[in-house]
TrEMBL record, chain A:
This is Glycerol transport system permease protein. It holds the Pfam family BPD_transp_1. It comes from the Bacteria. GO terms for biological process: transmembrane transport. Residues 65-276 form the ABC transmembrane type-1 domain.
TrEMBL record, chain B:
This is Glycerol transport system ATP-binding protein. CDD domains: ABC_Carb_Solutes_like. InterPro entries: AAA+_ATPase, ABC_transporter-like_ATP-bd, ABC_transpr_FbpC, ABC_transpr_MalK/UgpC-like, Mo/tungstate-bd_C_term_dom, NA-bd_OB-fold, P-loop_NTPase. Keywords: ATP-binding, Cell membrane, Membrane, Nucleotide-binding, Transport. GO terms for molecular function: ABC-type ferric iron transporter activity; ATP binding; ATP hydrolysis activity.
């Protein structure tokens, strides 16, 4: 008969403790808030799913959610192809390699609120580099009052900040392709497109999966940059989910509603990320 | 059709990789490039293919200068040491890829792919993806891709190195047959002298970026022009002994022998004598054998053969013996050198005498 012992549980224990403190306890606190209406620590009422129902019917949140999706998918649609193109056009050896790597890393080293501030200045019509340029070209650009301008500026800001990450990930993927593959393709007289489609893209699949998930999660939770740049305006044009949540939680101190909202927010991110993951790994199975 | 290299040189950032290489290869022949790792075999193949262009010299195909013509405009194919296939295409599409790129009509593609796959015995695997194949099958796919397009020049860069012993034997045999009736120039780089003898119509010896000798394989093997060439073409390498001919005596360090009749034509002076490990014996084989007393160093037993390393104060020898022999380190034995099997090189290393071969006696 096989002898069982439970020693292995001791090995799992540190992880369980760590995850409990970092994730499970805070999460359960939020769950706890989300089913109560709290006036002060001694005056609390259990309200069940009341907050959730209210959240799901909230017109303001529906709009923020749509804006958020539009924003995140725009970010992905621009940054992923652009990152691939940048990575493909980077030199494969020589002095250009470290230069490119350093230049690409620079935006990644800048804190979010600084990025917001930089673009606030760059976009100004009187002294900003782009703002002034557009004015001189006769384009009436003002991110503080024109919703479209504000939206585009927030988007460009994210592209400027994060395309580097996608490019660096793709570059590392491209570097792992042995030279003989390119040589073989040249001998086969394969076109550049064929080389990309059949040699480079398959090798990039894994890093692209990581890039897509990181950029989706990050852009879906974006807070600081639009907050600094536009404060969510004009109106609510650049008020994304996280900002709405912050207003609700610390602005109006509506803890129960904010807690319910956080949980739904969390589930949406989890669901979409899972969809991306499944779609992209499934594509891998087929070939 | 023929491929000619004329005084090719290739220098990369001040370092010379190929020095003054001249060579002519005919179509319908299987040509082996034999040399150690980093000797310049791959570099030479890349120059033949047009992947690189030479710093000096010309590459001619059928007398037409191809030196500057990029590989995309040539009709060559190449098989590598690594198994290079398109990972997302199945075996059929992999083999078909060069034909599709060459805009061959669909019906012809299917026929030619099936034909080539049949020759390489992978016709039952056409629907599979490379990662679902064994190493040997992957390399067969890569070979099929190289063969399907009827290239003027097919280059094999040590294609069997990453395969296990059995598969290597099997594919080696098939490759001979595959190229038997083809009007293609096949070039095959290897580090193994045995492959050169088994496969090559011609063998070209390459050492440190120079072509030492080129010609029909057995003629290069039996008449190496230099001691270097003799050392390269043989595994284990040929034994070389520094000797001096003085009057009617042969002096090997401190030992003196009467000059054997087979070497009687040599004038006085210093020579290097070469004797292949397989020609040395533990018992006398003729009247004029040179006899050495030596101590056993190492006996490597490989399959049904024994490689015996022996030495005394004057010389070191390697014997290639059939069968398994049980020796112990420092055993005192006698080794016999049959004089009619000796190569003699002058002090510059050039061949002055090669063994007389009687056609009836197998080597």
């Amino acid at each position: 008969m096989k002898v069982h012992n439970n020693k292995a549980w001791w090995l799992v224990l540190p992880v369980v403790a760590l995850v409990a403190f970092s994730a499970i306890v805070p999460m359960m606190t939020v769950v706890n808030y989300s089913v109560q209406d709290i006036f002060d620590p001694s005056t609390r009422y259990f309200v069940g799913t009341e907050w959730y129902r209210e959240i799901l019917r909230d017109e303001r949140l529906h709009n923020a959610l749509l804006r958020q999706f539009a924003y995140s998918f725009s970010v992905l649609a621009i940054e992923i192809p652009l990152g691939i193109i940048v990575a493909l056009s980077m030199p494969r050896r020589g002095l250009g390699v470290p230069i490119c790597l350093i230049l690409l890393s620079l935006p990644l080293l800048i804190p979010w609120n600084v990025v917001g501030t930089i673009w606030q200045i760059i976009g100004r019509g009187d002294i900003g580099l782009y703002g002034r340029l557009l004015h001189d070209l006769g384009i009436d650009y003002n991110y503080a009052s024109n919703p479209a301008d504000a939206w585009v500026t927030v988007l460009i800001m994210d592209v400027w900040h994060w395309t580097s990450l996608v490019a660096l990930l793709c570059y590392s993927g491209l570097r792992s392709i042995p030279d003989v593959y390119y040589q073989a393709a040249r001998i086969d007289r394969a076109s550049h497109w064929a080389v990309f489609r059949y040699i480079q893209l398959p090798k990039l699949k894994n890093v692209l999966l990581i890039a897509v998930m990181l950029r989706f999660m990050d852009s879906f939770m974006i807070y600081t940059e639009p907050f600094v740049l536009t404060g969510g305006g004009p109106g609510t044009t650049t008020t994304f989910l996280s900002q709405t949540l912050t207003q609700m939680a610390v602005g109006q101190f509506d803890l129960g509603r904010a807690a319910a909202f956080s949980l739904i927010y969390f589930l949406i991110i989890l669901l979409v990320t899972w969809l991306f993951y499944t779609a992209m790994t499934h594509a891998d199975d087929k070939g | 059709m023929s491929l000619t290299l004329e005084h090719i040189e290739r220098t990369v950032s001040g370092e010379r990789h190929i020095t003054d290489a001249s060579l002519t290869l005919e179509s319908g022949t299987f040509n082996v490039l034999l040399g150690h790792t980093l000797a310049g075999k791959t570099t030479l193949m890349r120059l033949m293919a047009g992947l690189d262009s030479p710093s000096h010299g010309r590459v001619l195909l059928n007398g037409r200068d191809m030196t500057g013509v990029p590989v995309r405009q040539r009709n060559v194919s190449m098989v590598y040491q690594q198994f290079i296939n398109y990972p997302t295409l199945n075996v059929f599409d992999n083999i078909a890829s060069p034909l599709k790129l060459a805009k061959v009509p669909k019906r012809d593609i299917a026929r030619r792919v099936e034909e080539t796959a049949g020759m390489l015995h992978i016709e039952h695997l056409l629907g599979r993806y490379p990662q679902e194949l064994s190493g040997g099958q992957q390399q067969r796919t890569a070979m099929a891709r190289a063969l399907v397009k009827d290239a003027d020049l097919v280059l094999f860069d040590e294609p069997l190195v990453n395969l296990d012993y059995k598969l290597r034997e099997e594919l080696r045999l098939e490759m001979r047959k595959l190229f038997h009736s083809r009007n293609t120039i096949a070039v095959y780089a290897t580090t193994e002298p045995g492959e050169a003898l088994a496969l090559g119509d011609t063998t070209t010896l390459i050492h440190e970026g120079r072509i030492l000798q080129s010609g029909p394989s057995d003629s290069v093997y039996h008449h190496p022009e230099t001691a270097e060439a003799a050392a390269l073409f043989g595994e284990p390498p040929i034994n070389l002994l520094d000797v001096e001919v003085r009057g009617s005596e042969l002096v090997i360090d401190r030992t003196t022998f009467p000059l054997p009749t087979t070497l009687a034509t040599l004038e006085e002076g210093r020579y290097r004598l070469g004797i292949r490990p397989s020609h040395l014996g533990l018992a006398p084989m003729g009247d004029d054998d040179l006899e050495f007393r030596v101590a056993v160093g190492v006996a490597e037993i490989s399959g049904s053969e024994t490689f015996l390393h022996v030495e005394n104060d004057d010389l070191e020898l390697v014997l290639h013996l059939g069968g398994i022999h049980d020796f112990h380190v420092d055993d005192e034995i006698r080794v016999y050198v049959p004089c009619h099997k000796l190569f003699a090189f002058d002090d510059q290393g050039a061949l002055v005498r090669s063994p007389t071969r009687s056609p009836n006696v197998p080597e």
